[in-house]
Amino acid sequence: MIDIQNITVQFGDRKVLNDIEIQFNQGEMIGLVAPNGTGKSTLMNVIMNYLTPTSGKVGFRDGLVYSSKTNEVKIHQFVSMMPDQSDLYNHLSGRDHLKMFAMMWGSDNKLIDETIEVLNMGHYVNKKTGTYSLGMRQRLCFAMQIVANTEIMMMDEVMNGLDPNNVEIISRLLMKKKAEGKLIIIASHLLDNLEKYADRIFLFNEGKLVDANEIIDGFSHAKIKTIRVKNLDEYIKRDLQQSYPSIEQQTLMNDMTLLHLPHSEASLLSEMTTFLVEKDVTDFNFGKVTLNDLYAIYYHEVI
Ligand SMILES: Nc1ncnc2c1ncn2[C@@H]1O[C@H](COP(=O)(O)OP(=O)(O)OP(=O)(O)O)[C@@H](O)[C@H]1O
């Protein structure tokens, strides 16, 4: 568990984090989403005590806080941050790195071989990391954190440079870790992936963390209350506005128009299907607002 208590981080006159108060629990996957430079890494750095906040504190289990070096050592036994690719030693192999992490966190050596197998790293793990591609290095960094096997795992852009198959493999392994009761916090721009796996998603706004459900009511529930239409003509939008004034329209920068229905009754859904098909509109789907939509709406990429 992490209890973030009134954390403020100020650089110059800018409050990157402004009096943040939130709890994250074991067995949860938390997604942090925001444009570049809004404070995701800053928050993780405060949780790791790499950065001392201007005010506030972070509490962990057994009432532990970063009040001394001894406490920091205790906390870092169960909280870890995924290493960065620049932390790798080019002259050592991937296996050397995994052994080092297993030793530092006192993990079972069996976990090294299991992780290598799950992440399909067998063909390269004994070579020096200086010879690895970007995706190979990224998988190794992830593997190192899995081998550390801490109760709380934080990852900044874990999916960077990974192909779709590896994104899926890593996502499944993360789900397994979550089921084991780990608390996983991920900052990511891979919104489809986060939406699929995260239990709670927070967006940053002017130093505050905002729950996605507060932005659009019931965001995480699968109720059909939205029709997403690609390239909807202006005259159809006007027709729709006149015939169905209670349906709110929102057109995003990517030319996707969201039609927000006041309720999700089957009769309204079939009425809307008929309306669109009669106007030769076929590129649409019913669903919920996606995290990609929500992001575009929230960060004002609306026409
Ligand atoms: N040590 C520092 N001194 C001054 N400003 C800083 C410092 N660290 C971060 N910042 C500023 O704080 C803001 C938030 O940075 P942060 O690294 O947390 O962003 P982020 O959301 O993680 O971005 P990205 O998606 O690019 O990783 C940025 O404007 C950054 O320039």
From TrEMBL:
Q: Which PANTHER family match?
A: ABC TRANSPORTER, ATP-BINDING PROTEIN
Q: Which PROSITE patterns match?
A: ABC_TRANSPORTER_1, ABC_TRANSPORTER_2
In which organism is this protein found? Solibacillus palustris
Transport: is it a keyword of this entry?
yes
Per the record, the similarity remark reads: Belongs to the ABC transporter superfamily.
Keyword annotations for this protein?
ATP-binding, Nucleotide-binding, Transport
Q: Protein name, please?
A: ABC transporter ATP-binding protein
Position of the signal peptide: none
Listed GO MF terms? ATP binding
Ranges of residues in domain ABC transporter: 2-231
